[in-house]
Design the sequence.
């Protein structure tokens, strides 16, 4: 399920509204299956035009390229950290500081193929090469037992926001992998709220906001 936030002849920005993968995995369906029904030309583009992906349970803004040249230019901008994404998350516990930054490398867990973990000095129980990652956060609001945060990253390490927040004792609500209290929320409370980029063809500065909010992210949009 998705909603179009912006469309022109070269790209789409969509709101991912459901907890399915962006791209089909094996026999499981993905958001790409819905998109190619409306935009059959996407089958000719790598990753069906998805220039970046969100975790299955993460909702919010995603850029989809309609042609190969647009796809390659946007991918280059992502690789060069020229595209900015802002996330909103609801986390367990009351975060005391108003803002902060987590700057810890991330690697694959040795114990679980599904999990990532932060690598601290002297910690060696991980697979592969750790990747440097920085996550900045700012408090949006506090309530009894939870805090809403705005977050930004300049890297795209798998599960980066989720494991960085876990590392400071505030895992995301509804996170089945990293929060033992996941049953208190229907799903992962994480939204890609805003994406800012330069249009690869017109060179126009773009800033697109997801219509989802933490308080309504699982309501129907139709």
Sequence:
């Amino acid at each position: 399920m998705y909603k179009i936030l912006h469309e022109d002849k070269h790209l789409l920005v969509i709101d991912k509204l459901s907890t399915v993968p962006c791209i089909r995995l094996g026999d499981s369906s993905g958001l790409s299956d819905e998109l190619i029904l409306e935009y059959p030309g996407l089958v000719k583009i790598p990753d069906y035009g998805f220039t970046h992906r969100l975790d299955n349970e993460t909702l919010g803004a995603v850029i989809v390229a309609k042609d190969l040249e647009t796809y390659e230019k946007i991918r280059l901008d992502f690789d060069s950290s020229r595209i900015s994404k802002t996330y909103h998350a609801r986390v367990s516990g009351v975060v005391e500081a108003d803002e902060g930054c987590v700057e810890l490398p991330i690697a694959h867990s040795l114990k679980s193929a599904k999990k990532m973990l932060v690598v601290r000095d002297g910690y060696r129980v991980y697979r592969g090469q750790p990747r440097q990652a920085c996550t900045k956060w700012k408090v949006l609001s506090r309530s009894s037992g939870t805090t809403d945060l705005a977050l930004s990253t300049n890297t795209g390490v798998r599960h980066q926001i989720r494991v960085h927040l876990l590392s400071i004792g505030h895992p995301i609500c509804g996170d089945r992998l990293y929060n033992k209290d996941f049953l208190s929320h229907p799903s992962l409370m994480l939204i890609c709220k805003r994406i800012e980029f330069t249009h690869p063809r017109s060179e126009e500065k773009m800033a697109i906001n997801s219509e989802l909010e933490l308080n309504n992210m699982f309501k129907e949009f139709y």
In short: Helices lie at 31-38, 68-79, 160-167. The radius of gyration is 17 Å. The chain has a mean pLDDT of 92. The chain has two domains: 2-84+193-209, 86-184.
